[in-house]
Design goal:
This protein is mainly alpha-helical. It is built from 4 helices and 2 strands; from the N terminus they run βααβαα. 63% of the residues lie in helices and 5% in strands. Strands 1-2 form a two-stranded antiparallel sheet.
Length: 202
């Protein structure tokens, strides 16, 4: 069954060596500080919305649609920033928004299909036992594979510095690993889908 979580990153044929150095030494100033200030404020609203949504699912079996997309926009914005810095996987500066379609920005696509209904029993199962049957088995696998992912990121920095390219195979591996983690997150603890995430880098 196809996952309701859709995540993809556009492979850049060329990356700027100048931008790489600029982000490396000054990224915190012109990327993290302005974006994280906005995201910190956004996150307060997202936390409140997720808390209310949990109760809404419990009593109605539905995740309020506006709340669903509010949380989705928060994470879309966050992932765009993370993609630009510190992953260095794109030179497209992240927009100050989490809306899906932004003119002139196509570095990343992230969406979760809105569920018409969610299981109340599954909600309680995930809430009380999610760490045991979701987080522990998936995160052990992701953690082991992430060791190689961090090595590739380190090597990719040097590859970009000397060639202006992020090696395609390494790029794809990191995207697949990231996608796996997002599928897990969407299932638990975000409760945005009842489809259990697949194991593996599909």
């Amino acid at each position: 069954m196809e996952s309701p979580v859709h995540f993809s990153v556009t492979y850049p044929e060329k990356l700027s060596i100048g931008f790489l150095l600029l982000k490396t030494f000054f990224g915190q100033l012109f990327v993290l500080i302005p974006h994280l200030i906005c995201l910190c404020i956004f996150s307060i609203g997202a936390i409140v919305v997720m808390f209310i949504a949990w109760w809404a699912i419990l009593f109605t079996g539905k995740y309020p649609e506006k709340m669903f997309h509010f949380v989705l926009r928060f994470y879309r914005w966050y992932f765009r920033v993370y993609l630009y810095y510190p992953l260095f996987m794109t030179d497209q500066y992240p927009p100050f928004t989490g809306v899906k379609d932004v003119p002139a920005y196509n570095a990343m696509e992230f969406d979760i299909e809105y569920p018409t209904s969610l299981s109340r029993g599954m909600l309680l199962l995930k809430t009380f036992f999610g760490y045991f049957y979701v987080i522990i088995p998936h995160c052990i696998c992701i953690y082991i594979l992430s060791i190689w992912g961090y090595i590739l990121l380190f090597l990719s920095w040097w590859a970009i510095l000397f060639t202006g390219k992020f090696p395609k195979g390494w790029f794809d591996y990191i995207v697949k690993l990231w996608r796996w983690g997002i599928r897990v997150m969407a299932y638990f603890p975000l409760f945005m889908t009842d489809q259990y995430p697949d194991f593996g880098l599909k």
